[in-house]
Design a protein that fits this description.
Blueprint lengths: L5 H9 L9 H8 L9 H16 L3 E2 L2 E4 L6 E4 L5 E2 L4 H14 L34 H10 L3 H11 L1 H10 L11 H12 L8 H4 L9 H15 L4 E2 L11 E2 L4 E2 L13 E2 H6 L1
Antiparallel strand pairs: 1-6, 2-3, 4-5, 7-8
Helix pairs in contact: 1-4, 4-6, 4-7, 5-6, 8-10
């Protein structure tokens, strides 16, 4: 896809509203149901029952919205529920970014110099690279969408403005999709639950958080608290952008990573963060 033409990209970004965020086994069950393309009432009812059975065995919360654009047939299972978007919000950021490029506010060839304080806990790769890089907006957009880079995400959200992202979603009729806080705000809330000293931490401090000082249960509890109770999160509701809902991962376990080039140990992350971003 040609990144020099903004609107085709914006349209492609918004077309990614259907998200298969469940475990591989659940996705395989849906693919193997044999009911794709059938829209008569009997097969719709059968598909709905199968989906309800999958949801009942899923180790978390799952909402589903499906619509056949040819026949307008729908299946909605708890689809009005509001969820933490995790990295789904990156699609909204990308759409507003391309909207601003189209309006001439800046160019995809403009550059942003990275600083140590821009580092963010993974996913992504920029946090493991030395500060002082000078990537283009296009580079950051590519990193945000292809590898879900959190540092690129905050840099771009800062560039376009989070209020502007939410306003653009409103203009598209997506009334329940919003972003107010940064990824750094999220990390500060999560890590600050473990150590209050991190509630105002810099990005480069968060990536060096001493996870080894805490048990898996402590990290899991802090992570869950941030998802369900803290409120520092982008959200999506039943407005079309998130109509195939993300589930909340309720069984996070520590995923141990290797070491970066500078030999700093990478922070172990709960599976919920790794799989839902």
């Amino acid at each position: 896809m040609d990144l020099t033409h903004p609107w085709p990209i914006a349209n492609a970004i918004l077309a990614l509203a259907v998200l298969m965020a469940g475990p591989a086994s659940a996705q395989e069950d849906i693919r193997n149901s044999g009911l794709s393309g059938k829209t008569d009432h009997a097969s719709l009812d059968s598909l709905r029952r199968e989906l309800e059975q999958i949801r009942s065995h899923f180790p978390g919360d799952m909402s589903i919205y499906m619509k056949n654009l040819s026949t307008a047939d729908e299946i909605a299972l708890d689809s009005d529920k509001e969820y933490e978007t995790f990295s789904v919000i990156k699609l909204a950021i990308a759409a507003e970014l391309m909207h601003q490029v189209e309006s001439g506010k800046f160019s995809l060839s403009d550059r942003i110099t990275t600083k140590a304080t821009d580092e963010r806990l993974p996913s992504g790769a920029l946090y493991a690279l030395d500060p002082g890089l000078n990537p283009t907006i296009k580079d950051l957009l590519t990193l945000m969408i292809i590898i879900s880079d959190n540092e690129a995400t905050d840099l771009l959200a800062d560039k376009v403005g989070r209020a502007q992202v939410t306003a653009y979603m409103r203009s598209l009729g997506l009334a329940n999709t919003a972003i107010q806080f940064s990824d750094l705000d999220w990390d500060r809330t999560w890590l600050g639950t473990l150590d209050p000293g991190y509630r105002n931490a810099r990005g480069d401090q968060t990536v060096n958080f001493p996870f080894s000082n805490y048990s898996e249960a402590q990290v899991e509890h802090a992570f869950g608290h941030t998802i369900y109770d803290a409120g520092d999160r982008p959200t999506a509701g039943n407005d079309g952008f998130g109509q195939a809902r993300l589930q909340r991962c309720q069984r996070p376990s520590l995923e141990h990573h290797g070491e970066a080039a500078d030999q700093r140990p990478l922070s172990p992350l709960p599976e919920g963060r790794a799989n839902c971003t």
